[in-house]
Design brief:
about 350 residues, alpha+beta, 5-stranded mixed sheet, 4-stranded antiparallel sheet, 9 helices, globular
Length: about 350
């Protein structure tokens, strides 16, 4: 039976979309990373072009060396741009911005209105929010590390990382490695992961923030079924998903994050644990990557840091995303524990 032209066109479009979707799902980890990076760049450029006529805002800086008022560009200028007017020390040491004495703000997030501005370093009197941003950033960079550490024939699908809990002793990222169901990392492999992490920090990449719509977020992560399942829930509140980019690595986080990877100092990937899913879970297992780090400039001798590392080797008690009630974690030395 012959189809009308309109129905035939729709059929052809559906078939081509299926082929495109399948081709995306077959991308290697590095190809998918580059694709997300390009889409992030295009969307950031599009949003910047929407600003239109440039309006001025007043940013009243509070802090050393002296208070002053800066005239900046609305929806374009960032706290980092303000720091450029004050000196190199402010640019390098400021982890977060504090607006109007109440709102913690990413250093590279454009300012939307006139405000007061304070810079938050790791040495302030009450560093709780800065420490949380640091731990959250370490988790996101750990995901970037896992994405680049394996050979091209190993599929790496990042799942998620929980909110920062510094008292747990380790930052974490839960990763799906479907082609390595029985991976037992050696000490050398953990050292290699740590070396990859250090490479990322030494690049001193600025950490960029971008809010995108749900549809674009789904498109950007169409190769990762874990992220595409999470995105609708994330976007439920306002239809937006907050993304961050470190180098060419793009991931989801509510933020805020610190200013750059160069603010991550001494770091080690301490252990990898296997998490088993519940009988109802679609995902049968994940690997929990764990690490510990200090901010740049924090001085700690080798012995003291080794104590932190030993603590970070223990399975982090954060709830498993594939088994929220904690049953099914594999605690046997042969299949779970991989400690440096």
């Amino acid at each position: 039976m012959k189809l009308p032209i309109s129905q035939l066109s729709q059929f052809i479009i559906r078939q081509s979309n299926k082929k495109a979707f399948l081709s995306i799902r077959c991308l290697s980890t590095q190809e998918a990373t580059e694709r997300r990076h390009r889409l992030f760049t295009l969307e950031k450029k599009r949003q910047l072009e929407l600003v239109g006529r440039i309006e001025k805002i007043e940013v009243k800086y509070k802090g050393l060396p002296k208070e002053c008022t800066l005239v900046m560009n609305k929806d374009i200028s960032t706290p980092y741009d303000c720091a450029k007017h004050l000196g190199e020390w402010h640019m390098e040491s400021s982890a977060l911005a504090l607006l109007d004495s109440s709102v913690h703000w990413d250093m590279h997030r454009p300012l939307s209105e006139s405000c007061t501005l304070e810079f938050q370093t790791f040495n302030i009197a009450e560093p709780q929010q800065v420490n949380k941003a640091f731990w959250r950033t370490c988790s996101l960079v750990l995901g970037a590390c896992a994405s680049v550490a394996f050979k091209d024939n190993v599929t790496v699908k990042l799942h998620s990382f929980p909110g920062p809990d510094i008292r747990s002793g380790s930052f974490i990222y839960d990763v799906d490695l479907p082609t390595l169901p029985d991976w037992q990392p050696t000490q050398q492999e953990l050292h290699t992961l740590s070396a990859e992490y250090v490479k990322l920090t030494r690049r001193n990449d600025l950490i960029e923030r971008l809010e995108v719509g749900e549809a674009l977020a789904l498109e950007m992560f169409s190769d990762n079924e874990h992220k595409t399942k999470q995105i609708p829930d994330i976007a439920k509140a306002n239809g937006k998903v907050t993304l961050y980019r470190v180098g060419n690595h793009v991931d989801i986080s509510k933020g805020p994050l610190i200013s750059s990877t160069g603010q991550i100092g001494k770091v080690t990937v301490s252990s990898v644990h296997k998490l088993l899913g519940s009988s109802e879970s679609d995902v049968k297992q994940l690997y929990r990557f764990q690490g510990v780090a200090l901010p740049t400039g924090a001085i700690l001798n080798h012995f003291a840091f080794s104590i932190l590392t030993d603590r970070a080797k223990k399975l982090n008690s954060a709830r498993s995303p594939i088994n929220p009630f904690g049953e099914g974690r594999d605690f046997t030395p042969q299949s779970m524990k991989a400690q440096a």
